[in-house]
Write a structure and sequence with these properties.
Length: about 220
């Protein structure tokens, strides 16, 4: 996969190094040549000095053939401009823009642009760690609106079915681990003692899940 990363700050450099370690073809663009020092001598990708919203710069970076582009500069507006140019002019299949202000995310998603808010993700994770010690949150979806929680089936759920505990739109059992093997349950799957579950829950419905588990 060929990926262009615009912005070689902390996030851009970390992203470039990780993708490079995975064997992806990475080109990093930044207006400041000193920013590439963050990549270190072992970086095997390409670097290009220039502005990411400049069409000529993106063309030289290989945008016409790129499989993906990440706009991760220090400015929300700049990231969105870069993302729109990549999508509309160069038809890059996968484009992601980093946003500092999560309130802008919905606006840009309506324009068909994928965004990631490090502010929203960080805040959601801190809330999880501070306030929900009895729930093991193993991941989140979106900007933290949906949480994936791992737990051992409580005694009062044994012999009940998935359909008995699912709450449409709020709580859904996504996976069951039994005797060392994980599987996708049906609505009629009956819980057994010792089962470990992965439950998808709206972050706003964590309290409800805790009450269902008799944790609150």
């Amino acid at each position: 996969m060929s990926v262009i990363i615009v912005g070689c700050g902390r996030m851009g450099s970390e992203l470039a190094l990780r993708l490079g370690e995975d064997g992806q073809a990475v080109t990093v663009v930044d207006v400041d040549p000193r920013a590439f020092d963050r990549l270190g001598p072992g970086f095997k990708g390409k670097t290009l000095v220039g502005s990411g919203f400049d069409r000529d710069v993106l063309a030289r970076a290989g945008a016409e053939q790129a499989d993906g582009l990440a706009a991760v500069t220090a400015g929300d507006n700049l990231n969105i401009v870069i993302a729109r140019v990549a999508r509309s002019v160069f038809k890059v299949p996968k484009v992601v823009a980093r946003l500092y202000d999560p309130r802008r995310a919905e606006i840009y998603q309506r324009l068909g642009l994928q965004t990631v808010s490090s502010t929203a993700l960080g805040a959601a994770r801190i809330i999880q760690l501070l306030g929900h010690r009895d729930l093991n949150v193993i991941g989140t979806l979106g900007n933290g609106e949906i949480e994936l929680v791992e737990l051992e089936v409580p005694p009062h759920w044994v012999h009940r079915t998935v359909n008995n505990v699912n709450v449409p739109g709020e709580v859904s059992v996504a996976g069951v681990s039994r005797k060392g093997s994980m599987f996708l349950p049906s609505l009629g799957t009956e819980f057994q003692s010792g089962d470990r579950l992965v439950v998808a829950v709206l972050s706003t419905s964590r309290g409800r899940l805790e009450r269902m588990l008799a944790l609150a």
